[in-house]
């Protein structure tokens, strides 16, 4: 075991190195534990986001416009006696809609 302090990675910003150098061994162990857990959490979030994006690409219906989320459903609205299909989805507290096309009355 060396009596010299470890050399910080070149990717670590100087201000973080300076801050860590002022910490006690106990606090450094807490920081190490927290940063390891945080790194695992962020990696997991990235994997989930990538999987969600892949799933969305794989399962996206052909007639679903790019600006309409996958969770949208089709609803029918009647306007001036005519019936129309709309994509509809929740966006926070709001309900969003986008025109899809007329309901075929010959059906």
TrEMBL record:
Protein origin, superkingdom: Archaea
Organism in which the protein naturally occurs: Halorussus aquaticus
Compositional bias annotation for Basic and acidic residues: 38-50
DUF6788 domain boundaries: 51-104
Acidic residues bias locations: 51-66
Ranges in a coiled coil: none
Protein name: DUF6788 domain-containing protein
Region feature (Disordered): 38-69
């Amino acid at each position: 075991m060396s009596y010299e302090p470890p050399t910080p990675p070149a990717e670590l910003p100087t201000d973080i190195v300076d801050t860590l150098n002022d910490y006690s061994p106990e606090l450094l162990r807490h920081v190490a534990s927290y940063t390891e857990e945080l790194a695992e959490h962020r990696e997991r979030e990235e994997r989930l986001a990538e999987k969600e994006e892949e799933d969305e690409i794989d399962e996206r219906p052909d007639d679903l416009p790019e600006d309409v989320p996958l969770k949208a459903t089709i609803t029918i609205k009647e306007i001036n006696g005519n019936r129309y299909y709309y994509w509809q989805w929740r966006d926070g507290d709001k309900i969003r809609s986008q025109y899809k096309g007329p309901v075929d009355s010959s059906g």
